[in-house]
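Data availability (excerpt). All sequences and predicted C-alpha cell strings are deposited with the supplementary files. A representative entry, LysR family transcriptional regulator, is shown inline so that the format can be inspected without opening the archive.
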Amino acid sequence: MINYKQLHHFWTVARAGGIVRAAERSGLAPQTLSGQIATLEADLGVSLFKRQGRGLALTDTGRVALDYAEEIFRLGDELEEAIRSRASGRAVPFRVGIADVVPKTIAWLLLAPSMKLPEPMRIVCREGKFDALLGELAIHKLDVVLADGPMPPNMDVRGYSHKLSESTIGFFATPSLAATLQNGFPHSLNGAPLLLPGGEAAVRGPLLRWLDAAGLRPHIVGEFDDSALMRAFAEAGAGIFPSALAVGEQLCRQNAMVHLGDAAGVVETYYAISVERRLTHPAVRAISAAANEGQKPG
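C-alpha cell line:
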C-alpha cells in the first residue's frame, strides 16, 4: 500500500520545483525530503524525478503520479472541510464559476438541484470569462465551471467536461418590435435589427451559418459577450434576441417578448467542467444526476 506521507513529500517537492525550495516551504531538512522520495521510488519501482541541469524535473511517470497526488490531496481538503462544516452545522460551500455567456436563467435551472440536497449547501457564484474561470478551477478556488462549451483542447489546464443539457435557439422580440416586422418568420429577419452573442459564445458560429444558409441578411446592431447585457438591450426593444428557449419563453410569459421562431438545428449545449473525471462534490453530482434524468433547460 502506498505511503501517503511519502506521497505528500513528493507532491510538495514537485509543486515547489525542487528539494531545496520545498524544504524552505515545509520546514523539513532537504535530506529528509530526498530520503522520503527515494524510499517512495524504491517501493513503487519507478523514477519520479530526473536530473535537469542543476535541478530536478518530473519523469513521465512522475507527471502521472503528480496528477493523482493533486486529486488525492484536494479530495482530502474537501473531505476535511465537509466534515468540519457538518460537525459545526455550517453549510457546505459550493463554489461555482459561471461563464458570462451562459444566460442567468439557464444557470439557475442547472444549479437548482444543488439547492435541494438534504445537507445545507451555501452556493458561491463567480461570473467571468471562461479561461479566467478555468484558471480558478485549476487552483481549486472553484468546484465547477458552467460553460456553453467543453474544455478547450489547447488549454494548459487539467479538467473534464460533463455534458449537462442543451437547448434549441429561438428568436424573440418585444411586442412593439415584432409588430413592425414584415412577412413571416424566418423572412422577417431580413433587414431586421439583430443582437448577437460575442465571439466567445459557442453558439455564435452555428447561428451565423444558419442565417447564411437560409439566405437571411439581418441588420446586426449589437454584439455582446455578456448574455445579461444582451437581454437588457432586447427588453429595451433594441433588436431581436436569439436565445435558448427556456430564457425566451420565460420572457414571453412575462409579456416582455414575442417568440418569432426557431433556428432549426442550432442548439446551445451546457457543460459542467471539473478537475475530476469522477464527480465527487455532492452538489455537482446532484446537477449531473438531474441532467441525466432528462431535466433540460429547454
